[in-house]
């Protein structure tokens, strides 16, 4: 507890989207940069204002160089539930911490930020004038100030019931902004090579942050598709590699996904996407390969595995095999005779995720992370349905709703134990195994829900 007293308090201004993903992202990034998550609030809920204790300003700046869930961070000088409480809090803030930013040779400006309410210019000036008791000795510079200070007022979350007075008021020194602009600059709409299921840019960066991807890491995506996740990881300095069972996607062949374009061009491929963003030097390779039969020798190769497996909705779940498929077990790893011609078979979701976890447990370095999407039928979902492995520890489980009856959960796991052969089948002894097999009927339940919704809409239209 004594160490926590040396921490400085910071105010994070969070974006109001992907709410469930925000806390795991901030925790992962603080862990990545040597900080420990310490908060003066037990839960944030949907609030955009978070108060954190962070060991140093350097860690706070590093955090903002990565996060896409946070807009800005401020060194918190004071806060209260009323102007009087704020002013009292500011008067109690150590003067020696203020002086380096308020001396006569400095320039500054004060900004007013309100959440869920718009103030007039007159009201803003009134709030700025009320801070004249602070020991500002520098000159005001509205264009290029050395230091920016902000008053941030929180008027709650209900736009239909805006209170006259704010719930909370904060004052702090601006430190840095987050990486929200990456969502636009890496937008799939602008990307050279896309597919039906190309991952949204914002979510791609969130997944890379959950996976604690850093410079010089080796990151692998076994269901690479058009490589959207590789782009996000490469942006953070990782070397990227992927595989996919679809020959046409890997080689950029076949019908185009874009409207008014019949076929893909000769330079539409994953490597071209990385080249588009100046990231080609981070591209290792992409191969045609079956995720159910990895072609890797025993060993630990990857710092992170970041992936979005197919759910059987817009992309089919497939693996290679034969019409006389032997029961799933140790034999599947045996080599096929040279005369064998593999065919495409259905790949059950439960088998796919068990293979993925086993692969991650075998090939991740200790401390490496697996980040993947798990589709669920919401009415039947329980936490027991999340795949389990003795070598992997569950770090976070975040929901993104897809429809009234389906969602997908972003699962982040960390390798905490060296893989042994017996770990490959330990799931069979787990209490999670039977509920987990419920994922196999996700496709049927998904389309059943769609059919019911369409029928309901048609009925209401007829009435």
TrEMBL record:
Residues 190-320 form the Ribosomal RNA large subunit methyltransferase K/L-like methyltransferase domain. The keyword tRNA-binding applies. GO terms for molecular function: tRNA (guanine(10)-N2)-methyltransferase activity; tRNA binding. Its EC number is 2.1.1.214. Residues 9-180 form the tRNA (guanine(10)-N(2))-methyltransferase TRMT11 N-terminal domain. Catalytic subunit of the TRMT11-TRM112 methyltransferase complex, that specifically mediates the S-adenosyl-L-methionine-dependent N(2)-methylation of guanosine nucleotide at position 10 (m2G10) in tRNAs. This is one of the major tRNA (guanine-N(2))-methyltransferases. This is tRNA (guanine(10)-N(2))-methyltransferase TRMT11. It comes from Nomascus leucogenys (Northern white-cheeked gibbon). The lineage of its organism: Eukaryota, Metazoa, Chordata, Craniata, Vertebrata.
